[in-house]
């Protein structure tokens, strides 16, 4: 079967290479930003009067081939920029260099792109422009339909819920920043652990996301969807920002250009950004939360056809945590709603990244990307979920610890050609990733560092090699199709250092290999600039922890996820945009390594059906309404009716807000977040209670400074941010109790900020 997969992939690649070898293009366009002089990707370029269109690549380039009808002009448009028209000189053969001027976003001027795969583009770009990203949690909440929860006081990666999945800390949701993977395979706390706190929110330029496993360039963890965070290549003004609020919360941020304006005019940019944050948080036991981030990025034109991007990050965080608490302890008055059973929880983590990317355009418009990255990562977490269930004397505290070196290489080759009147956009790529983790540990401890019993200890080596191919056929301005194919090969090795490990046969090295082939097929019908329909489908997967893989001898370790979306993007009026989709996801059975218990658990087949609705409305200039409503019906397939609920799977979720934008004076927003009640266990005998929370932001903005006020939980609602059905025993209790334990969400909290630009 493996050789068959290789033959199929080689045949498709050969066909695409043959197709790519034709048809010179003669009208060339290069687009840059008027303020920072950087190339602009994703600008829609239309040839008039033929109304043939396309979008610029990562280097701001696009090419049209000759047409029978004489072209008179080019029209360029994009969200956040003034629309431009450029007359075509019939005798001119060189590139048209066009500078786009930033402009405030207005839904009246927004049109639906005919480019295949852009169904989320309007929502993403208008939300970023109108709402902005005010804090680290908003980085993920900007994605419609996502619910996040934090149960370690801000120290751990957020728990993610999307499309009826409890994706844990990233098991079924892929995250990348500038091509650098955020998710960690075979992590000490859980598979796919995605701690994005090393991203400074103010450095984010754009957020690209898609739901479902329909993109060939995205592999592991892309079950419910993925997000790409793109940091700024350049900015115009330096920034100093100070924040302070309740619970001894403060933050300091600085962003500084290291090159002059003349250098930026020559498309050379280098900046540095850094932040420090401290908070005791709202819990009865102070969290002493500390976080430090340092980020630097260089982006420059190093030759006529090449851009080099270099970036480096270092991140450090340390915290105490109150953890999850049982409802009965609050009801009996043993602790308060914001109290703790075990105040010794907490942790420390740090990560250093280096990232280099070279983009090169060829004479025919092809683009080659080469990227290498490296991360050094450490994680040390102390938690206690069951209190005195197992050890009635010392308690059940556990320590999860690892040290990791992560490195990888990404290559892609993009080519545009024609087959008759059909435009073909081909992308072929290769992704290689290696994770080397030493002394991955799970231990039973007391007071954090007193070792009572080791449960797991070993070294993990995991290598993945993933070629992919994506072919987009644009038959005309109305109908497009995308077909993709991805092959992922995994090599797992575990050096078990613990003779008492109950899942393995003893000390020694255990190996296992696996591969999977993931096809994609997507159709797009662009009726006009106000209406599009799409049907997307594909197979995805998430890998399993190496410790589970070797324990099962490689059996069914890459379970498939099959999904499909039927959706539409349309503008029923000039100032309204709607994106709506019906979707379905089927997930095969899988083996899961339980990071908190060190055991291998079996989960059966599941399926989920639901719909997503996103609406955006701008009744007058500067007033922006957004609404997201999401429903998911998920069940375990093999379980009996009434015993087939998926624990913690969200059913109804919604978020909405109204934003007033004004670059010279008062502006702000008022938003809500809603999660409905959902099952906490398989028979729904326990309920994870829903919540409705409101937040507000008020700013006073001038050209060179901004004063801000953020209010979380405006009406001081008591709510439970994360909840788990857990069997626990409190000290002195004779019998354990099965109930929902929770981490309380933030009460009413106020934070002030002052930002100065220069």
Describe the structure.
The protein is mostly beta strands and 758 residues long. It contains 6 helices and 45 strands. The strands form 9 sheets. It has a 22-stranded antiparallel β-barrel. A 4-stranded antiparallel sheet has the order 3-2-5-6, with no helix packed on it. The protein has a 4-stranded mixed sheet with strand order 12-11-16-15. A hairpin with a 4-residue loop joins β37 (652-660) and β38. The radius of gyration is 26 Å and the shape is globular. 43% of the residues are buried. Residues 15-25 have low confidence and may be disordered.
Topology:
Elements: H1 2-19, E1 25-33, E2 44-48, E3 52-55, E4 61-65, E5 73-77, E6 84-87, E7 96-100, H2 121-131, H3 138-141, E8 147-149, E9 159-162, E10 165-166, E11 174-177, E12 180-181, E13 183-184, E14 193-194, E15 204-211, E16 225-231, E17 239-245, E18 249-257, H4 261-265, E19 268-279, E20 289-303, E21 306-321, E22 325-326, H5 327-331, E23 345-361, E24 367-383, E25 398-419, E26 422-446, E27 450-474, E28 479-496, E29 508-528, E30 531-541, H6 546-551, E31 560-573, E32 576-587, E33 590-594, E34 599-603, E35 606-617, E36 623-636, E37 652-660, E38 665-675, E39 678-679, E40 687-688, E41 691-701, E42 705-712, E43 720-728, E44 737-744, E45 749-757
Parallel strand pairs: 1-7, 11-16
Antiparallel strand pairs: 1-4, 2-3, 2-5, 5-6, 8-9, 9-10, 11-12, 13-14, 15-16, 17-18, 17-45, 18-19, 19-20, 20-21, 21-23, 22-44, 23-24, 24-25, 25-26, 26-27, 27-28, 28-29, 29-30, 30-31, 31-32, 32-35, 33-34, 35-36, 36-37, 37-38, 38-41, 39-40, 41-42, 42-45, 43-44
């Amino acid at each position: 079967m493996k050789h068959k997969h290789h033959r199929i992939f080689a045949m498709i690649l050969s066909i695409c290479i043959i197709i790519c070898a034709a048809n010179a293009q003669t009208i060339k366009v290069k687009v840059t930003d008027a303020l920072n002089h950087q190339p602009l990707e994703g600008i829609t370029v239309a040839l008039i009067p033929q109304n043939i269109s396309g979008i610029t690549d990562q280097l701001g380039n696009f090419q049209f081939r000759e047409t029978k009808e004489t072209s008179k002009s080019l029209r360029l448009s994009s969200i956040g920029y003034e629309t431009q028209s450029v007359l075509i000189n019939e005798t001119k053969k060189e590139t048209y260099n066009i500078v786009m001027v930033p402009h405030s976003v207005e839904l009246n001027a927004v049109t639906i792109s005919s480019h295949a795969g852009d169904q989320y583009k309007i929502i993403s770009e208008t939300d970023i422009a109108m709402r902005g990203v005010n804090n680290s949690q908003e980085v993920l909440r900007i994605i419609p339909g996502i619910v996040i929860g934090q149960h370690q006081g801000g120290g751990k990666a957020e728990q993610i819920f999307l499309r009826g999945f409890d994706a844990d800390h990233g098991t079924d949701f892929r995250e990348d920043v500038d091509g650098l993977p955020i998710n960690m395979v075979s992590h000490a706390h859980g598979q796919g652990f995605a701690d994005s706190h090393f991203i400074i929110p103010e450095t984010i330029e754009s957020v690209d996301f898609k739901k479902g496993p329909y993109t060939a360039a995205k592999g592991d963890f892309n079950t419910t969807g993925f997000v790409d965070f793109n940091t700024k290549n350049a900015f115009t003004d330096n920034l100093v920002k100070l924040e302070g609020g309740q619970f001894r919360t403060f933050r300091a941020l600085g962003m500084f250009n290291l090159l002059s304006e003349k250098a930026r005019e020559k498309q050379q940019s280098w900046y540095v950004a850094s932040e420090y944050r401290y908070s005791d948080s709202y819990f009865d036991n102070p969290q002493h939360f500390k976080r430090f981030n340092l980020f630097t990025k260089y982006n420059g034109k190093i030759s006529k056809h090449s851009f080099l991007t270099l970036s480096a990050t270092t991140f450090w965080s340390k915290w105490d945590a109150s953890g999850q608490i049982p409802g009965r302890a609050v009801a009996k008055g043993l602790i308060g709603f914001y109290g703790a059973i075990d105040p010794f929880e907490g942790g420390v983590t740090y990560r250093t990244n280096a990232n280099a990317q070279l983009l090169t355009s060829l004479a025919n418009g092809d683009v080659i990307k080469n990227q290498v990255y490296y991360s050094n990562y450490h994680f040390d977490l102390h938690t206690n979920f069951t209190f005195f269930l197992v050890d009635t004397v010392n308690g059940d505290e556990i320590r999860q610890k690892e040290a990791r070196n992560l490195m990888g290489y990404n290559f892609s080759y993009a080519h545009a050609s024609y087959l008759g009147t059909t435009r073909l956009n081909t992308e072929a790529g290769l992704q290689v990733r290696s994770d080397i983790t030493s002394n991955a540990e799970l231990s039973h401890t007391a007071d954090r560092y007193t070792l009572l019993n080791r449960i797991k200890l070993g070294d993990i080596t995991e290598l993945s090699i993933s070629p992919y191919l994506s072919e987009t056929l644009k038959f005309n301005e109305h109908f497009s199709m995308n077909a993709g194919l991805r092959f992922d090969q995994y090599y797992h090795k575990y050096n078990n250092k613990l003779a008492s490990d109950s899942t393995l046969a003893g000390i020694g090295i255990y190996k296992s290999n696996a591969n999977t082939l993931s096809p994609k097929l997507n159709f797009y019908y662009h009726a006009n600039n106000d209406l599009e329909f799409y049907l997307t489908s594909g197979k995805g997967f998430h890998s399993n922890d190496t410790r589970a893989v070797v324990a099962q001898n490689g059996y069914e370790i890459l379970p498939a996820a099959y999904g499909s979306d039927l959706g539409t993007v349309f503008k029923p009026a000039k100032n309204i945009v709607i994106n709506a989709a019906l979707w379905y996801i089927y997930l095969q059975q899988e083996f899961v390594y339980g990071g908190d218990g060190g055991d291998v658990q079996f989960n059966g087949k599941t399926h989920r059906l639901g719909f997503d609705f996103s609406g955006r409305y701008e009744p007058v200039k500067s007033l922006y309404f957004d609404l997201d409503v999401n429903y998911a019906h998920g069940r375990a397939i093999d379980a009996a009716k009434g015993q087939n609920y998926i624990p913690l799977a969200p059913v109804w979720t919604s978020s909405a807000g109204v934003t007033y934008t004004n670059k010279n004076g008062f502006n702000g927003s008022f938003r809500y977040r809603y999660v409905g009640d959902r099952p906490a266990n398989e028979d729904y005998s326990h309920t994870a209670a829903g919540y409705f929370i409101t937040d507000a932001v008020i700013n006073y903005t001038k050209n060179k400074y901004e004063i801000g006020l953020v209010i979380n939980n405006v009406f001081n609602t008591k709510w439970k941010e994360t909840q788990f059905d857990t069997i626990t025993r409190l000290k002195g209790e004779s019998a354990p109790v099965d109930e929902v334990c929770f981490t309380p969400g933030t009460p009413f909290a106020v934070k002030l900020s002052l930002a100065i630009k220069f």
